Amino acid sequence: MKVDLNADLGESFGAYKCGMDEEVARYISSANIACGFHASDPSVMKRTVCMAKDNHVAIGAHPGYPDLQGFGRRNMAVSPDDLKNMVQYQIGALNAFCRAMNVPLKHVKPHGAMYNMAAKDEKLANAIAEAVMEVNPELILLGLSGSFLIATADRVGLKTASEVFADRAYQSDGSLVPRSMEGAVICDEEAVVRRSIRMVKEGAVTSIDGKDIPIKADSICLHGDGENAVLFAKMIREELVKASIEVTSIEYVVE
Amino acid sequence: MKVDLNADLGESFGAYKCGMDEEVARYISSANIACGFHASDPSVMKRTVCMAKDNHVAIGAHPGYPDLQGFGRRNMAVSPDDLKNMVQYQIGALNAFCRAMNVPLKHVKPHGAMYNMAAKDEKLANAIAEAVMEVNPELILLGLSGSFLIATADRVGLKTASEVFADRAYQSDGSLVPRSMEGAVICDEEAVVRRSIRMVKEGAVTSIDGKDIPIKADSICLHGDGENAVLFAKMIREELVKASIEVTSIEYVVE
Amino acid sequence: MKVDLNADLGESFGAYKCGMDEEVARYISSANIACGFHASDPSVMKRTVCMAKDNHVAIGAHPGYPDLQGFGRRNMAVSPDDLKNMVQYQIGALNAFCRAMNVPLKHVKPHGAMYNMAAKDEKLANAIAEAVMEVNPELILLGLSGSFLIATADRVGLKTASEVFADRAYQSDGSLVPRSMEGAVICDEEAVVRRSIRMVKEGAVTSIDGKDIPIKADSICLHGDGENAVLFAKMIREELVKASIEVTSIEYVVE
Amino acid sequence: MKVDLNADLGESFGAYKCGMDEEVARYISSANIACGFHASDPSVMKRTVCMAKDNHVAIGAHPGYPDLQGFGRRNMAVSPDDLKNMVQYQIGALNAFCRAMNVPLKHVKPHGAMYNMAAKDEKLANAIAEAVMEVNPELILLGLSGSFLIATADRVGLKTASEVFADRAYQSDGSLVPRSMEGAVICDEEAVVRRSIRMVKEGAVTSIDGKDIPIKADSICLHGDGENAVLFAKMIREELVKASIEVTSIEYVVE
């Protein structure tokens, strides 16, 4: 039994600092590093790659829409071709810092609106999968468990990893309950831990309307902002280990 | 006797088209492709890499300052560390399209204000040379003949190529006569051709005040905008060949 | 019988030139001037305001989404509050140049995706109408004839002007036939002129499926790019005058 | 005896929060509000104008260079014409929110590199002064005491206010000791208060090399970031009042 713990790191920008990257990096096994479109800049990226390397955290590219003001969270009607190109651009940019630091780039996880749109839209999913495949077929695509992104990347021939959200409620079709709905976020930390362990061990989770649904948990998404996020990262890692689940980076989970 | 002919390609942006890239690509041996900071966007970069590949033109990265409105021509007080990071970012971004198209990235030529500032400032020159060295030590740095950029890159251990400007007057210290001064641009095309051939064959050029000065001409910079630029590119290529000078890409000139 | 002829001007950006603004300005009565979000920059705005003033063309703000690469044509999920603020920002920016040049700002016409989304979404329409109302209740809102934007602005108490597209086919519900559908653009110039005159004189147009539908034509939208656009602008102005329709700026049409 | 206390507010951007604006706003009499080029966005600007109005703080525009990543602190070789236009653009943008909130715009203070460059370069100073004059001749230009910016704005006919930095050492020519030099920042709060009171009452300050130099203190610049900044703002206001100096906004100081 193995699982990866991932978090988004390197979301500062110029004089703007955010996230508790150094603290969170101690407890995760994979970092999704912003690439300058929805957050970050070249100097933040360099620092974050160094920091991930120092903490023996696997490095992934975290491409987003070109919308710094909206933090990549606003849906944008980007064509599949343009999407493919902006994903390749961002992977390449991050990879330069990996080469400069002599550390491998391991995975790609789209950010925010790009992640959500590609989960449901096959053309966008295909654009992202092809983008990754063409740049480096060894990269693992990290996407929402049960999404079009995972299905499409599998079909294209990429290695994939299915991501679950420990503190989010699921609908019975396997999609996340939207944040705007009541009950979307699970605040009871013990419940979150229990759900996490069950998702990994049994491949199942209870949906918001009480049904048991199948779910694939290769990687659990953690948050990187705020002291509570750090405390929770520490706790869930400890609880997973206690439950005899090894926390290790994506490549060893999906091999 | 060999020389490279280079031009800046891929400077369109979104709906904004500029340059006569397809015409110019027929006559040059190396293309400096903009990387999205001073010009271009991911989709323009992809198209330009494809076009260069189709024309058997060697591909180089053309990083610039993050100043789209100023087209990277305005001096900016960027620190050496930030400069190094923004050069690595841009090289990586372009390299992603080279990998996707299965064509090698061969050289790096800084753009506009970055090129001019690094020609005279050793710290900036060093930042650029280290940036290239760390990302890929096989890349050739293309810079102004006789500049700090060439000297520093040589010292760092990079392969370098010295660029000359066929239609620009030189001062007796080997620097370009600023465009604001009279006589900076040489309009007589025959004179430009004659100077080019002499620079390649004799390693010398006559300065604006009539002295013969040494100059290293590994690559001649051509312009890519306007019909005259295309006609001139065609003519200079033909005249070089007539003068028994082989036009070939940078790597074969500097080997 | 009066009608306004409007065109989008001032869409250049930095070194990127586009549009035949000076030629088109001779034939239109109102200019929609880009405000730096989807196109333009402060120096282009200043020049365009001067040019419009010199040509006695009424000046309007042409706010767009913050998407220079997509030219403001990509739908973006901007919240009504953020939309309201970005419209006010852009109106204010253009108004500074009007004050500096001592020429009044007369109207506001949203651009591209913002125009299209606000035509169909009442919350977005309301955000734009309130934005204009708060900044200057004397400004006229120019929107698609029959759209939510016009209805909402009327309700908020703004003066409005209804825009028609002479060379575009209409569906029987009064909306434009999408460009992706066959027959969306009418290429026969005589037909375009005939339709224009009828829209102004009779307040009616024939839809793509052959029905006569009511339409309000306070202003006809012309294009500003390409020589054909200039020739057509000249022709339609002459034909309107021959048909005893006065071409005059929006404020005199809607008074 | 009167003096204004000013601070830079509204420097957040999108999801990036910075500054303790609400706390600082209680102690200052004038706010310099960022305009979206070096910091801020339309929604932050709207909120900050509201907040300043609620706190009865006079509102000024704080235009900067278009360099969000560098926070407007990097020198840029912007031409005087482009500078003039970017200042007018930013004043207009902020003014839209003032009109929407029905509160007057009172002053303009350039930010960071623009402020420093215009202090020493007469052409840039003139561009800024003309920009303000043309947009609204009633606006007060706030600049470094003894700088070219103040001299030029005076000559152009603008009202000006001279700014002093309570916690910064001065050279004997009246310029600030660069931050890179030892002794540039004065950390002893009592000394800072003493210097402030003397600058206001006597129009003099002791330079870093021990000479008494004349200085005009219409407004004292305070910082807005960090708890210490807030505590210091509170203290200096109280100490000024104890010293029988009235703290009031710029227009009442320079009238």
3D structure, described in words:
- Chain A has nine helices and ten strands.
- By secondary structure, chain A is α/β, with parallel strands linked by helices.
- A seven-stranded parallel barrel of chain A has the order 1-2-3-4-5-6-9, surrounded by six helices.
- In chain A, strand 7 and strand 8 form a beta hairpin.
- In chain A, helix 2 packs across helix 3, helix 4 packs across helix 5 and helix 5 crosses helix 6.
- The model of chain A has no long low-confidence stretch (mean pLDDT 96).
- At the A-B interface, helix 2, helix 3 and helix 5 of A face helix 2, helix 3 and helix 5 of B.
Keywords:
homotetramer, 255 residues, alpha/beta, 7-stranded parallel beta barrel, 9 helices, 18% strand
Q: Order of SSEs of chain A, N→C?
A: EHEHEHEHHEHEHEEEHEH
Low-confidence stretches of chain A: none
- What share of the residues of chain A does DSSP label as strand, in percent? 15-25%
- Tell me the strand order in the biggest sheet of chain A: 1-2-3-4-5-6-9
Roughly what is the average pLDDT of chain A, rounded to an integer?
A: 96
The dominant shape of chain A is globular
What oligomeric state do these chains adopt? Answer: homotetramer
Separation of the first and last Cα atoms of chain A? 12 Å
Number of helices of chain A: 9
Radius of gyration of chain A: 17 Å
Largest interface: A-B, 26 and 26 residues
Structural class of chain A: alpha/beta
Helix content bin of chain A: 40-55%
Q: How many runs of DSSP E, i.e. beta strands of chain A?
A: 10
Main beta sheet of chain A: 7 strands, parallel, barrel
